[in-house]
Amino acid sequence: MKCQRVVDETWQIMDLLGIDRQRLHLKWVSASEGNIFAQEIRSFTELLRELGKNPLAEKEAEPAPAAEQNAARGTSNLSQMASG
Prior knowledge:
It is a single chain. By secondary structure, this protein is mainly α. It folds into two domains: 1-52, no CATH class; 54-84, no CATH class. The chain has helices at residues 2-17, 34-51, 57-61, 65-73, 77-83. The radius of gyration is 19 Å and the shape is flat. The termini are far apart. The model is unreliable at 76-84 (pLDDT under 50).
């Protein structure tokens, strides 16, 4: 299934970034299984709390040097690519 393939590919990216695969969960639940869906959400929320803060949260807060320079000039990589 396409959805499972996308999740598998996303897990590979997460591995490269050092993000625990447990932070992405795929569960097939029918629309008639509201109680099961609710339990899955509760369990997943609890797991995320146990895992703690996103390991990239600190890295995201610090912009890359090139991004800082572009921001100071009012440009971005995309605008440079479009004009060059």
